[in-house]
Structures are given as structure tokens and as C-alpha cells.
Amino acid sequence: PKPNQVAINEIHDTRRDIFNSVEKMMKTGYKKEAHPTIFKELYDEWMQLERDLQFLWGFDLDDNKIKFWNFPACSCPAMDNNDAYPYGYYAMSGGCMIHGSAVQDNVQDVTNGDVFDALGINTDLSNANTFKENEDETV
């Protein structure tokens, strides 16, 4: 496979692992008090992977074209946001575990992989950088 294809496949695998882990945590009643910003941290990683995919596919980098409300822990109104897609002006729910005001006050930057390691999510995308060598090559 071409370098871009390898990177895209690896990013999709990591993205799917994050998504599935959050879904499982939501279904099993994960106690958010143990790590209050875990959903936001996983969401931030997921969003970065979405941006990486835009780049690898050669699309403009545009957060308005990422359907953030599809992330499992997000409770922002999907119907309203689907209507506004991809133009922006998205609706955020104050009670959302990702976008709510209480979460924003407690957000910390993740500087290590402890959260992802604990969930068994591989965030080593060292092979994903191979696309830089052949940026002009089409996928």
C-alpha cells in the first residue's frame, strides 16, 4: 500500500478504538469522578485524528466538517447540528460531558498516554508520518 493509505488505516484503527472504548465506558456506567476529564481527553484525541484524516485525504482542514456530535459522550443536539452541517453555527449543550460549561472549567491538556494506555488504545502513530515523504503522491 502507498504511504498515505498505511497512515489512513492506522488512524482509522485508533479512531475506532477510542470510539468503541468511550461507547463501552458509557454503557457500563464509568464513574467519571475517578477521572473527570477522561471523555474530554479522548474527544480531543479523536478530533485530532479527524483533522489528520482531512490532511491525508488532501481536504481543507476545517473543524466545521467534523461531526463532533457523533462522539459517544457528546450530548449536543444531533438534529440541530446535522441541519447546520457543514456551515458551522453548531448547538452545544450546557450539560454535555464534552462541551458543557462545567467541563470547560476543568479541562487539562493530556501530555502523556496514561489514559489511552489504561484503555488499551494504541496512540503510537509513528508509521503515520510516512505520508510526509510522498505528499504529492495520490492515494
Summary of the model, kept short:
This protein is mainly α and 139 residues long. The chain is 45% helix and 0% strand.
Protein described:
The protein contains 5 helices and no strands. It has 139 residues and is mainly α. It starts with a helix and ends in a 21-residue tail after the last helix.
Mean pLDDT: 77
Number of strands: 0
Q: Strand content of the residues, in percent?
A: under 5%
Largest sheet: none
What's the N-to-C terminus distance? 9 Å
**SSE order in H/E notation?**
HHHHH
Low-confidence stretches: 104-113, 128-139
Helix tally equals 5
User: If you compute it from the alpha carbons, what radius of gyration comes out, rounded to the nearest whole angstrom?
Assistant: 16 Å
Q: How does the helix and strand content classify structurally?
A: mainly alpha
Helix content: 40-55%
Shape: flat
Name the descriptors.
5 helices, flat, disordered C terminus, 139 residues
Topology:
Blueprint: H1 3-27, H2 38-57, H3 78-84, H4 101-106, H5 114-118
Helix pairs in contact: 1-2
